[in-house]
Amino acid sequence: MARQLRFVGTDSKVDGCPALHTDEGTGEVIVQGTPVTDPEGLAQLQHFGPGDAAVAVPRELLVNWGPKEMECVPELVDRATFRRLFETFKHTAWRLETRRGYASDREDPDFQAFLATGSSPCDFSEPWFVNIKAQTEAGKTVGRVRVADKPLTTEQLFLLDYARHNAAVGEDIRYLWREDATDLPAEDFWIFDSRLVALLHFDDADHITNIELITEPAEVVRYCIARDAAMHHAIARDEFEALVAEAG
After folding, report:
1. Per-domain residue ranges for the chain?
2. Cβ neighbours of residue 5 closer than 8 Å, sequence gap 6 or more
3. Strand, helix or coil at 247?
């Protein structure tokens, strides 16, 4: 079976080598670096077998990016704690949305209204809108990039219509076609202040099963790298909406 490697990090400033990857299936750490080839050096390695390879990497690579514990124990939080993050963040809150639909949307009366009329209503007195409006008016940034399919699912069409309400309270909503998002993690998460990640776990019916907080610096950086890549390639909501309308 082919390995499923996830890039962990690099200390390189130019070409990405040396670097660390993790095998998602086995948990093994793959070290990428300069091969050790000189016979005298290889002769000094203990337990070096005929099928082995040796690479040289800076100590800093392992210190900065190496796993800090044998087994990661997820820190799970309840919904109330998760909601408080949107009240206490200092400057930025950003989300990547990758699923084709969400159970919470399908259960929303606004979704049923959209199915009936093609337009979603909105109550700006809802706590979400009240809080986000207060945060953005205070100079903070709230944004999302949504991965979209061709054609858009019904749930994605609903969210595209509903995004005008999010924009009205200051959210920056952008879109990225799934075919252009192959280098992004297939995960939904929020990043708060580039220091804390709330990873959302879902079941097969698109319900959130739990919320995991990640504060380990190397892991947070990995999600920030994904954010930067998504923002670079995504297009603004109104431009995306025009493309969808043009495609019919």
Report:
1. 5-65, 75-247
2. 21, 22, 23, 24, 30
3. helix
Task: Give residue 12's identity as a one-letter amino acid code.
Answer: S
Full-model pTM:
0.77
**Total residues found in the chain within this entry:** 248
Give the fold, CATH level 3, of 75-247.
Endonuclease; Chain A (3.30.870)
Please answer whether residues 176 and 233 qualify as being in contact, where contact means their C-beta atoms are separated by less than 8 angstroms.
yes
Helix (H) or strand (E) holding 53: none
pLDDT, tens digit (0-9, with 9 covering 90-100), for 31-64: 998 899 898 988 898 888 888 999 998 888 888 8
Q: Give alpha helix (H) positions in 89-236.
A: 103-106, 109-117, 127-137, 154-168, 217-233
- Helix or strand holding residue 86 (H, E): helix 79-88
